[in-house]
What we know:
Blueprint: E1 5-6, E2 12-13, H1 19-41, H2 54-69, E3 79-80, E4 87-91, E5 96-102, E6 107-114, H3 115-121
Antiparallel strand pairs: 1-2, 3-4, 4-5, 5-6
Amino acid sequence: MPRKKTFSCGHKGYGQTCHRCIQECATWIQKKQEKQEWEASFSLDPINLRHLPAHLVLKARTIIARLEGSRNYIEFRGKRMRHNRLIISIPLSRDYRMICRDCGTKLVPEGVMSHEEYNVCKPGG
Ligand SMILES: [Zn+2]
């Protein structure tokens, strides 16, 4: 049985290199790649979703994908704005709304607004 040695990183173990650090490095690279892929995925979105929390990004993407094929915004509790019937507001959460424009044959996403922004600038107004 070889004796444990202390590597330059401070960890103890067997062999030429510290397996803990190799593992940590692999995890770090994987996380970094996942982060890059996540960031790159935003360039495929028709609207900017970068400021949203991750679970709302996924929810918004699901809604956008569903609206591509159908105009059924009511499925997502969306409703038309009273001051502009062409603008549809779909709640993503208590704090965020997705704004879509009714372009006749389809609903085109315009953006996501926080509850405060939404109350101040009245989308489509
Ligand atoms: Zn180490």
